[in-house]
């Protein structure tokens, strides 16, 4: 069985439509992953356990998405040295700026690799996770290069009306 | 010995000049308290222990101050039913708006009683703690009323040049 | 008859869909309450009377919701030592940031326990009120603990597609 | 004795350096005024009395300056039909945007004529008060026209180095 | 024929749904007015003429609404001593914060009495205009007092479900 | 005598330290210019005249700097087809975001070529003016290319401690 | 064949509905142009080539629209002395403020003539391009003057209900 | 000689005081690195070369700091699959929010791992780089764990006056 090296966690079921974009990117690149709901506030012990065992379970990257007072990515970064990629989920009143600041503004000692707000950020979290793994996985590096070249090649020369 | 019912915690020594205002207010009102550094990210286990024992140790209110991606108040609210009052400490780049959003925008289930950004908020956290205790301590309620009356009485009728 | 210890006030009928969330939380926790429209600007005398009699009528917590230049929570805090929880109602042009600043940024002397913008904030106001009452009501503390445990237990391990 | 038609009120002695600019403008235009500290939160009864007697005392304009959760202008507008001009005093953390939103975003029924944040706004409050009085005081209208012409005439044609 | 003392101008036909609220308020208070489209950028000469003749035509208040880089209120204030009330019309990308800053932040010498963003601000502009006229029109003052009392009296004691 | 093709105008003497950067850039590129104080609010007729005669006087670009409710660039764009470059001058309370929105958010029909807030924006206004003139002045184009190459060549390979 | 002097480029097909407004304005003024998709991130070499050949191909103005971390306008300005007009495309989470800051805040040396956010900005980009070309094309200047006069003439005197 | 796996690049010498924090963190963890000035706008070809050779030169992480319209991190991400960590340098007018949005809001396909604004973000960029390398370097992982434990152990139990 392939070792799972990417953990995708989110604060709530309601974050799934956003975070699913990360899984689709990893699927496209052939990177296995697991998906879990880990609520910093509602299931803090789950967060603790996840963080404490992340490295020993073989995880190499954790993608964490949350909205509002989004403590999940930063608290996870506090519990493990495994790199944490944070995805600020868009929110109703503040458009995800609350999520962004809660994830981004970490104090010295606990970086969170913050992505753009919302779906594009989640997709990019998948790509960043792949990029990190590719630093020690030449085959994945090759697949990532190919994906990037295909993206460039897909851009039309001129805009067209619908 | 008097039971300590108010815990004042902060994420870092650097928050102390702000949070000291809460202690001064509690001193003025004759409310005993303890002060601790509890960093959500650097000492998460300390946060865990503090939260898990807060109610059984007899704490009735927790004042938590932090800056930036300020997870301490919300994570404490996740660990204990004791009411948590949050103080957003002012920050360099974002003036404490990052602290504010990280503390305020808690999801359903885990309220944090958020105060104004900075020193005025810390002082008010002390007053809010006293107000909460006063709901079941008539002597404190009387002292609080007196403090409020003295504040009103101290206001001059007209502004004066320095 | 049970003493009503929580007063829920709001600036306008239009705040009711938001503030109703506070009542539902209090219903779930078995905490009796009253609901009133008290407009700081349109019915200032009503605000005055409510504030002046709040403590003597036995109120122990006031939840105040308002939008825009939201003066109700702060003015109520000026009139009574009973703790005031403020709920910033979301607004059309400024998404409730105007409500938030008007409620949060109180000067030294008059704290308002500010909640998140909108419906989640209103629900949390109910929980915060219960938490305050629970500091001197062991039975309510037990119910609150149970509610919190049930919330944690309700979280699925993994996200699912709709 | 000349009837005083302009009342200048402010929430705190600390607002005086800002609000003094309004008095200087009124001095320049020969408009008598009174200055008072009226704190919405610390002296609410003073606010009540001021508002209730404003019209009968012969006031025709009220200039109200305040900072942070600045409730003074709006609450005064709630208590009297005399036009209220609001001056958002600059604040430390939020640069007066909190003051601005608390003053500006009044609900239907209670306008506050909001000026620019800080000292320029206070000076302009004096001018606006004069402009309002000038609608029924031709001599003042003439003085105001002259002041405006002098201002225009004072502008150099070209910028110069210091 | 009654002298028209209130001019309502707006930068574009698209501002009319907002600005109409001002006319409805003035209708309710029995204050005659005129409505014009005066675009600061598209019809600058119309702006010039309106401003230069405003006082001599007998106007006592000008209500000016505009959106985006909203120069109409401030430019009108530059051309006439007649008090100008500014209404920031809500915009698509920036929710009217652009309109607000363009209207509010006038330099020393040219105050614009700025109202809340959008429809409530337009309605309040009508009320503010009436309040200004009422300083020298006792009959209007009486009608305004009655309108205010009716507003207060219309507020229900308790919120109701729809 | 060389025809002056660039007019640099500013709302106030206080804008000069910022706007001087534009002149220094034009000096470096050998482009003659004139500098004038033209206040949209204090000297509207000067603005009118400047705009009406700009094209006929041979101006090909106008650089306009202003702060706060910065109407000068947009009003100038309303009066002349000569391209207007706007420089938002930094302000005390709002850091120039007020200036920016007042200059940038022009309605369809009256573009203002907006530069960065403050001194860098003023310098770039000079460069943009030169770039516009260079579209029909090959010698200037050559000088501009050289200036750009020199800038690139001046960048050290590695950062150094002071 | 007419020399094409205006290049309209955009980061993505999704920017086309916005950028089309620029083409419509140029069509109205009889200015030929080309439209291309040039993605700063997906097709950086295309950006390089476009920039390097812009001047020699005879382009006199480049209009560049992009959203989010909008690097296209600024990177193009880095590659060519041809004036670049930037259009911040409105975005979902941040309403185009991200696009705006990414385009506007260019360092000394590389101005981008930034337009308003969204469709009005794109239309104005077309007008600004025409205005730049008109500095050395009297016939276009005449057409531009006529267009501006027609715009002014189209404004009704009074607003009307729909 | 040890292979250098971390490249630290910045847009300007003026970014060095901020970016130096990244080097200090890497020094503390025994991770070799190189430091270069690579200006996206002033030295685009340098950026191109750096990006094109990054992977083949053996770089595994790139830390890129820039301020204002900060295009360096995102453009580097466009040129190489090597993970890019972005540091938003604080700016004068907009406090680094312009830098942040320019770095963070990357489109699908080109993630930048964004850190907090300013010095804390630069230090954390060093830690994140180490964390990424540690995913395939057990000795570094051990050093990183030790550094984290030492940080936690350094936190005093209680705050102290200076």
TrEMBL record, chains A, B, C, D, E, F, G, H:
The keyword Isomerase applies. Residues 4-155 form the PurE domain. Signal peptide: none annotated. Pathway: Purine metabolism; IMP biosynthesis via de novo pathway; 5-amino-1-(5-phospho-D-ribosyl)imidazole-4-carboxylate from 5-amino-1-(5-phospho-D-ribosyl)imidazole (N5-CAIR route): step 2/2. Pfam families: AIRC. It catalyses: 5-carboxyamino-1-(5-phospho-D-ribosyl)imidazole + H(+) = 5-amino-1-(5-phospho-D-ribosyl)imidazole-4-carboxylate. Its EC number is 5.4.99.18. GO terms for biological process: 'de novo' IMP biosynthetic process. Substrate binds at residues 12, 15, 42. Coiled coil: none annotated. The keyword RNA-binding does not apply. It is an enzyme of class 5 (isomerase). InterPro entries: PurE_ClassI, PurE_dom, PurE_prokaryotes. One of its GO terms (molecular function) is 5-(carboxyamino)imidazole ribonucleotide mutase activity. Keywords: Isomerase, Purine biosynthesis. Catalyzes the conversion of N5-carboxyaminoimidazole ribonucleotide (N5-CAIR) to 4-carboxy-5-aminoimidazole ribonucleotide (CAIR). Belongs to the AIR carboxylase family. Class I subfamily. This is N5-carboxyaminoimidazole ribonucleotide mutase. The gene is purE.
């Amino acid at each position: 069985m392939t070792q799972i090296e990417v953990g995708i966690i989110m604060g709530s079921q309601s974050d799934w439509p956003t975070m699913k974009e990360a899984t689709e990117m990893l699927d496209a690149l052939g990177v296995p992953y697991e998906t879990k709901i880990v609520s910093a506030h509602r299931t803090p012990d789950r967060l603790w356990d996840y963080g404490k065992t992340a490295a020993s379970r073989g995880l190499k990257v954790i993608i964490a998405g949350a909205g509002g007072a989004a403590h999940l990515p930063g608290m996870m970064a506090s519990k493990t040295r495994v790199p944490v990629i944070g995805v600020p989920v868009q929110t109703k009143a503040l458009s995800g700026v609350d999520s962004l600041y809660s994830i981004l503004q970490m104090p010295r000692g606990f970086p969170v690799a913050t992505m753009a707000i919302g779906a594009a950020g989640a997709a990019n979290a998948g790509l960043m996770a792949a990029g990190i793994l590719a630093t020690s996985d030449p085959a994945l590096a090759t697949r990532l290069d190919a994906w990037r070249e295909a993206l460039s090649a897909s851009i039309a020369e001129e805009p067209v009306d619908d």
